[in-house]
Amino acid sequence: ALRRELQAVRTHRAAHRSRRQDAPIPVVALVGYTNAGKSTLLNTMTDAGVLAEDKLFATLDPTTRKVRLPGGNLEVLFSDTVGFIQKLPTQLVAAFRATLEEIASASVVLHVLDVSADNAPAQCAAVLQVLEELGVQDLPLVTAWNKIDACADSAAVRALAASRADTVAISGATGEGLAQLMAAVSGKLAESMVEMEVLLPYSAGALLDEVHKMGKVSSTAYTELGTRLTARVPRCLIGKLQP
Fold first, then answer.
1. Strands 194-200 and 227-233
2. Residue 49 has what pLDDT?
3. What gap in Å lies between CA 46 and CA 145, rounded to an integer?
4. DSSP-derived pairing of the beta strands 227-233 and 75-80
5. How crowded is residue 137: how many other Cβ atoms within 10 Å of its Cβ?
6. Model-level pTM greater than 0.85?
7. CA distance 16 to 82
8. 182-220 pLDDT, tens per residue?
9. Neighbouring-strand partners of residue 200
10. Chain CA centroid to CA 21, Å
11. Burial letters for 60-94: b for 16+ Cβ neighbours within 10 Å, e otherwise?
12. Is 95 exposed, middle or buried (0-12, 13-18, 19+ CB in 10 A)?
């Protein structure tokens, strides 16, 4: 029954990706060990009402919500994924991996770690291993040390997180650290943009508007054939801009 549900999720997500490619918007994929608090974090950021319970595979059908990042008009999609576990039953490995295909199309991966868990290092290692097996270990990565409010010495954990690159201590339940987390995600999105020089026909006005909204245009020239521009754009726009 679980295998059938996983296959249904895979088909459902493929349809969502296809629709998003028609109207590209940067995707931030939430990944993490099961019960790390990804759904609670998504709820807090977007009031999405995603099922958040302490249960294995509670989020089989990943939920995606649009979030406007602070300091601009850039909107991104935060997409929740099924929680990772160690020692998954062999017969479910392929189907489980299939539900994570969403990550490959992401602009940024947000790794949510339950930093209060006794086995947090092992959970972190398990997630990073799965990302490597999926071939997405080189995608821009931000790590959220979640459940900081449940740590015995939260001040020490905050200080350790602050000393690490691209790591933010947060509480998805209380909202602590979310402003810093959004800033870190925004910074990673900016870093991951690709510089392109393109010639857009004047009939592609809508695409030109997307480039201005989602990217950073450094030069514009108007020619007989269309608008020639140099811009840094998110990965999700590259396919639409390539000839």
1. antiparallel
2. 46
3. 19
4. unpaired
5. 13
6. no
7. 16
8. 989 988 988 888 888 999 999 998 889 888 887 888 999
9. 227
10. 16
11. bebbbbebebeeeebebbbbbbbbbbeeeeeeeee
12. middle
